[in-house]
From TrEMBL:
Reaction catalysed by this enzyme: (S)-malate + a quinone = a quinol + oxaloacetate
Organism: Paeniglutamicibacter sulfureus
InterPro entries: FAD/NAD-bd_sf (IPR036188), MQO (IPR006231)
Keyword annotations: FAD, Flavoprotein, Oxidoreductase, Tricarboxylic acid cycle
Coiled-coil residue spans: none
Keyword Flavoprotein applies: yes
Lineage: Bacteria, Bacillati, Actinomycetota, Actinomycetes, Micrococcales
Pathway info: Carbohydrate metabolism; tricarboxylic acid cycle; oxaloacetate from (S)-malate (quinone route): step 1/1
Class in the EC hierarchy, top level: oxidoreductase
NCBIfam families: mal_quin_oxido (TIGR01320), PRK05257.1-1 (NF003603), PRK05257.1-4 (NF003605), PRK05257.2-1 (NF003606), PRK05257.2-5 (NF003609), PRK05257.3-1 (NF003610), PRK05257.3-2 (NF003611), PRK13339.1 (NF009875)
Name the record gives this protein: Probable malate:quinone oxidoreductase
Keyword Flavoprotein: yes
Cofactors: FAD
Length: 474
């Protein structure tokens, strides 16, 4: 998020002074790291939680369309950065890969058919295919079908134009552009305090982790894009808009396979349905990954719990985030999500063999010894005030801005990095309303579809998607 914002502002306002502070030794090593997330270009093509079934059995498509719209903005931004020579070859961070939704059983298969029928007429989903034919599915995803009961009812929807993204590599490409264009990058640096100065500017206290040297930076605008660590920095700013927010950390693990004989048989991202009581981020999926030019398979995630807000954080992160203003929302959200608590306890206690059994539901002939268990990054889900419930747990992102637009922070997780560009453009509109009119020509240069809903403009959508695919070599 921060690398995206810095890259955008540098092009909109070349004369502004920009500083980036990162506590680790290089960019993109926490939640954006290649192995700390699934690398899916989240566009709602295969993620079933973005298109839930309503009580009457119909499928709600609003969120799926919105997320796909957001992803198209990100694609346009990355395409612009590549075409302008601001970042390197697209294969460093993005690769084409089909996205599939796969289910079994009568109820799930009926739902998936209804989902296909609801999404297929939408311009952004017009290339979607659907089948229940075992032979066709064996061609689409041989590992998933190999060894499966031929009498089992299965169903899948597929979009060939999906993507796998190495968000760690993309983050480093963007910060590389920033550094070449005068942005002051500071790694190995902790932000310890954010306070309003007497003249209205923000005084940001930073400490060099190697030397313990402390300095104060004065700024007219501060963006807190610290992933799981954003909540604590937002609280330190003291802005009223940040009061009442809490965070619930969820960790995750994946099984990873690098065996070329296995990897070569699977070329897709295959998403299933979440278990009852499981958070949306725990939807099981069997993915092809491209990291550092090498293909691997990833299966998971297996949810876990830690009180850390960052993978390299402190076990005191959660208790130290408690405030009088967020205690009621935190307790209310906890009371209303006992099924999630039960689910997390069950996940934490799972044996390795239980994890292997989960893998075999999607890859029946899998042998556990070919897969290594890796720990992924932390995700801090947003807890916020609610007028009637006291507080709710929100599986999404939340942008908080001060009334004067001088501070902004991004909390939450899914769909995360895939929608970084549109979220940052929205934040700029909220924080810099007086500059937006003058920025329009440059914004249109970066995002040809800026301000347009592509799903409502089919011809423009096809033109833009075709052009970005060409530039990004998809």
């Amino acid at each position: 998020m921060s690398a995206t914002l810095g890259s955008i502002i540098r092009q909109l306002e070349p004369g502004w002074d920009i500083c980036l502070y990162e506590r680790l030794d290089q960019a993109g090593m926490e939640a954006s790291d290649s192995w700390n997330n699934a690398g899916t270009g989240h566009s709602a093509l295969c993620e079933l939680n973005y298109s839930p079934a309503s009580a009457d059995g119909s499928v709600e498509t609003t969120k799926a369309i919105k997320i796909n719209e957001q992803f198209q903005v990100s694609r346009q931004f990355w395409s612009h950065m590549v075409a302008a020579g601001h970042i390197g070859a697209p294969r460093k961070f993005i690769n084409p890969i089909p996205h599939l939704s796969f289910v079994w059983g009568d109820g799930p298969a009926d739902y998936l058919r209804r989902r296909y029928e609801a999404l297929k007429p939408q311009p952004l989903f017009e290339t979607m295919e659907h089948t229940e034919d075992h032979a066709t599915l064996a061609q689409w995803t041989p590992l998933v079908m190999g060894g499966r009961d031929p009498q089992q009812r299965v169903a899948a929807s597929r979009v060939e134009g999906g993507t796998d993204i190495d968000f760690g590599s993309l983050t480093r490409e963007l910060t590389g552009f920033m550094e070449k264009n005068g942005v002051d990058l500071n790694f190995g640096t902790d932000v310890t305090e954010i306070a309003r100065g007497t003249d209205g500017r923000w005084e940001v206290s930073v400490k060099d982790r190697a030397t313990d040297e402390e300095t104060t930076v004065r700024a007219r605008f501060v963006f807190i894009g610290a992933g799981g660590g954003a909540l604590q920095l937002l609280q330190r700013s003291g802005i009223p808009e940040g009061k009442g927010f809490g965070g619930f950390p969820v960790s995750g693990q994946f099984l990873r396979c690098g065996n070329e004989e296995v990897v070569d048989q699977h070329h897709a991202k295959v998403y299933g349905q979440a278990s009852v009581g499981a958070p949306p981020m725990s939807v099981p999926h069997l993915d092809t990954r491209f990291v550092n030019g090498k293909r691997s398979l990833l299966f998971g995630p297996y949810a876990g719990f830690s009180t850390k807000f960052l993978q390299r954080g402190s076990l005191l992160d959660l208790p130290l985030s408690l405030r009088p203003s967020n205690l009621v929302p935190m307790l209310a959200a906890g009371k209303d999500n006992l099924d999630l608590t039960k689910y997390l306890i069950t996940e934490v206690l799972k044996s390795r063999e239980s994890k292997n059994e989960g893998l075999r539901e999607y890859y029946p002939e899998a042998t556990g010894h070919a897969w290594e268990l890796i720990t992924a990054g932390q995700r801090v889900q947003v807890i916020k005030k609610h007028p009637t419930k006291g507080g709710i747990l929100q599986f999404g992102t939340e942008m908080i801005t001060s009334s004067d637009g001088s501070v902004a922070a991004l909390l939450g997780a899914s769909p995360g990095a895939s929608t970084a560009a549109p979220i940052m453009f929205e934040m700029l509109e909220r924080c810099f309303p007086q500059q937006v009119a003058a920025w329009q020509p440059k914004l249109k240069e970066m995002i040809p579809g800026y301000g347009v809903k592509l799903n409502e403009n089919p011809q423009l959508a096809r033109e833009i998607m075709s052009e970005t695919a060409k530039v990004l070599q998809l």
